[in-house]
Amino acid sequence: MDYQDINAQTITRWIEDGWEWGRPIDHGTYMRAQAGDWSVLLTPTRPVPHDWFPDDLAGLRVLGLASGGGQQMPVFAALGARCTVLDYTPAQLDAERRVAEREGYGIDIVRADMSRPLPFADASFDLVFHPVSNCYVREVEPLWRECARVLRPGGRLLAGLDNGFNYVVDDAEERVVNHLPFDPLSDAGQRAQLEESDSGIQFSHTLDEQIGGQLRAGLRLLDLYEDTNGSGRLHELRIPTFWATLACRD
């Protein structure tokens, strides 16, 4: 079985167990967004600054890249954006469909594997919103090239990125137990760790891959911030485990 199919099955189980990133927003949150009171996340805890977005999203073409679950796209739709969501887990796309039907807006829903060329024409989008998820992709630099390709000139990429620290420590976040890169396709011990905790197939990525890769793809870095897991020992010690980046295509 392809590792992306393993991940889709794993995430479906997480959703059935109440996974926080698979719970769509409620009607009240949608209505508040329509009134201008809104926030979205790229990483676990820190809301994305509003100045990372264009002043007016109305009419702009927004791609939610591996962003299913009915959390961010409904907010952008409430603000008037023309939204497309791409995800590989059917349950995440079902959540998007349910929210759109409930609130009465249109959205293009695409099931596709982000590790392959994106099924969109060049310069299709004004903004790509990509929450933490490329930890489920072995090679990220092709993804950055695809993001640059589907963005129009001046378009923005907002991305949440795992910095690799979570893969070094044990489940209690107390001991260093792994080397990097974390690649369960080439390390049977790391694969066994993921299977034991029902964590799918995940990969660590370096600063060079995550941010350097965006630059090599022709994107220009405008801003960034760090974030923690939101809970656990690393969070209590204020150790950042995620980055969020704002980049644009010139």
From TrEMBL:
Domain spans labelled Methyltransferase type: 64-158
SUPFAM superfamilies, sorted: S-adenosyl-L-methionine-dependent methyltransferases
UniProt GO MF annotations: S-adenosylmethionine-dependent methyltransferase activity
Transmembrane segments: none
Alphabetical UniProt keywords: Methyltransferase, Transferase
One GO process term, biological-process aspect: methylation
Pfam families per the UniProt record, alphabetical: Methyltransf_11
Protein name (record): Class I SAM-dependent methyltransferase
The organism of origin for this protein: Bifidobacterium pullorum subsp. saeculare
UniProt lineage: Bacteria, Bacillati, Actinomycetota, Actinomycetes, Bifidobacteriales
